[in-house]
Each structure stands twice: as C-alpha cells, then as structure tokens.
C-alpha cells in the first residue's frame, strides 16, 4: 500500500466458505498489513455461546463492534493500516465501524478510510468448500442463514463486491487491485473537494474586500 495515502482498513466480509481467512493471510503477506478477526474481539461469554451453537443477539454483538471500531481508530492514530475479517454486516453495523473515521480525525491527522470488501460466491461453490473443510463441517442451514442475512453494499458506501469463486491468491489479487482503485478514486475525490473549498473561500474573501 502506497505511503502517499492515509491509513486504510480493509474490512473483508462474507458468509462462511468465501475464504476470508485465506484471502486476508495472502494480503497480509503481500502488503505487510496485520490481520485481525472479529472473533478476536468477542468476550468469553460470547465464545461460550458460540461453542454451544447459540446465536448471538444484538446485545452480544454491538459491544464487539464498538471494540473493533476503537481498535481501528487506534491503529489510524498510529498511522498504520490493517485487514479485518468478519461475517456479513448490516448497513447499521458497517456505519458503526465507520465511526472510526471520525474518531481518527480528532488527532488532526488525515482520517483513516474504512473500505468494505464483500466476498461473494455462488451457493454451490460455498457448499462444496464447506463440505471439504478439514477442521469442521458447517451445516447448510448455517450457510443459508448467513446468506439470508446479507445486506448488500449501498451505492454511497466506500467498498465493493469481489467474486470469491477462485483460488484465494487470485481473489486476494483482485481485492488488492480493487483497494488500490478505490483509494485512488477516493484521493481524487478528496482533492477535488479541497480545491472547491479553497475556491469558495477565495470567493468569500473577494466579496468581503
């Protein structure tokens, strides 16, 4: 990731079987950005629920999002970027994480950008992958529940959907290209906005004179 950009946090979301972990690990090797999982922010009570197959309610998950948001803001204050993997997030949850952008602005430095990459693949591909997992078998009912919970990115969100059907390294390369493209577009947009602000200020000054 080029140093000419302010810190960026790539949030990789996707249902089980989209290969978030493998893609994130490859991205980390290529960019040097550390990887953290949403699972790392769960308290022991949540872990016990998940271990026994219980679903987490909003009251369980919201504090986790707050910890993730604060962690992202802390990394931004130190001038570092990171990759965060997590299950599908609602628009409300994504906006909560984006509060890290405002928190980082308090430092007076360039704000971090939260870039959401949604990994997606056909259901049959996901089912085949889950069936071949050596660690544990994920029931199709769990996959279908996650697929039903997906809230697609809106047009006004900083992010993109990436096809995760291929090999993790190929998917990661696509993610990397997408991040670079979005960051460049974002920098250009910010530059244009700054120029417009300066022209507006000059016009106001001319009127006052």
Automatic annotation (TrEMBL):
Pathway noted in the entry: Carbohydrate acid metabolism
RNA-binding in keyword set: no
GO terms for MF: ATP binding; gluconokinase activity
Reactions that this protein is recorded to catalyse: D-gluconate + ATP = 6-phospho-D-gluconate + ADP + H(+)
UniProt keyword annotation of Transmembrane present: no
Keywords: ATP-binding, Kinase, Nucleotide-binding, Transferase
Domain of life, source organism: Bacteria
Enzyme Commission designation: 2.7.1.12
GO CC annotations on file: cytoplasm
Pfam families for the chain: AAA_33 (PF13671)
One record GO biological process: carbohydrate metabolic process
InterPro entries xref list: P-loop_NTPase (IPR027417), Therm_gnt_kin (IPR006001)
Family, similarity comment: Belongs to the gluconokinase GntK/GntV family.
Name of this protein: gluconokinase
UniProt source species: Corynebacterium provencense
Phylogenetic classification of the source organism: Bacteria, Bacillati, Actinomycetota, Actinomycetes, Mycobacteriales
